[in-house]
Amino acid sequence: MNEQLHIENQLCFRLYKLNKSITRLYAPLLKEAGLTYPQYLVMLVLWQDEQAKSIKDIGAILELDSGTLSPLLKRMEKLGLIKRTRSKTDERSVAIELTAHGKEIKNKAKFIPAKLLMLTGLTKIELKQLQQDLDELLHNTQQHL
Amino acid sequence: MNEQLHIENQLCFRLYKLNKSITRLYAPLLKEAGLTYPQYLVMLVLWQDEQAKSIKDIGAILELDSGTLSPLLKRMEKLGLIKRTRSKTDERSVAIELTAHGKEIKNKAKFIPAKLLMLTGLTKIELKQLQQDLDELLHNTQQHL
DNA sequence: AACAATTACATTGTGCGCAATATAATTGCA
DNA sequence: TGCAATTATATTGCGCACAATGTAATTGTT
């Protein structure tokens, strides 16, 4: 009997479940704004400073490649959230910017983080500590990629 | 400027990246055994006690529904990892059991958890503490689903 | 200037994950 | 017993995630 192979002992399985669990918590809140979770992540990046960003920039922040982002951003354009424009200074690059509708949604979305924090039941101090732990782990794992 | 909406302040984003990052760490190790990560999770469940389990049982453990498991298990059958059999006592139920090949793979896989733990750079104590923290968070979030 | 290498993005194909719906078997209850 | 409700699984459709490949624009080198 190999205790290490026991599924409940595996860190990865907890992260797998927790990630799904949190995504499901977001779903109803995001639905009100008409967003999926990955779309929400893109919007967070664009809301940051409301400046146009290239697909490359967005990919670097979210750690997603063009195979994921190209169709995702096309869907978001069809939903009227963003506009895609070929850069004139570099025709290879595509600039992504928010539409007026995309900017408006921020007002609905800005209450989401607080709502979610409440659902986690974490205090601000626990949150900060957990974020540090996860950052350290993220740093370690990414060294081996 | 809404600090809460800043993507780098969001717990969910860390979990999202960490989950992807860890899955990518597994990928090359699992490839040697011819498994994807979700397939590995199913195998972990079946390796536990090498007894046939229903799709429902597997779904309860992995928190996956038939929409995910039905095609996943069909692919695994095609790969020769498992066998699917309609239960005779209850024709609605499908029993999943390991093939000889499926059992053999355990010998390759049993070294994976230790390898991965090393890549995380965590001590056993840190691991245990983190697992507890994640369990608590998982428990809290699942209360609201 | 010519051309090889690199870069930014798009496309194709595969495998999840999940909502919604369908179907057949079983159970529960009047 | 008959029939409505429940249960176990399957199917469809959509949206990621990512590997592999393709393409056009740009850069670097000689």
UniProtKB/TrEMBL annotation, chains A, B:
Q: State one Pfam family annotation.
A: Staph_reg_Sar_Rot
- Could you tell me the keywords of this UniProt record? Cytoplasm, DNA-binding, Transcription, Transcription regulation
Domain of life the protein comes from: Bacteria
Q: Does the keyword Transcription regulation apply?
A: yes
Q: List, for all copies, the residue spans of the domain called HTH marR-type.
A: 8-139
- Subcellular location as annotated: Cytoplasm
- Protein name, please? MarR family transcriptional regulator
Organism name: Thalassotalea castellviae
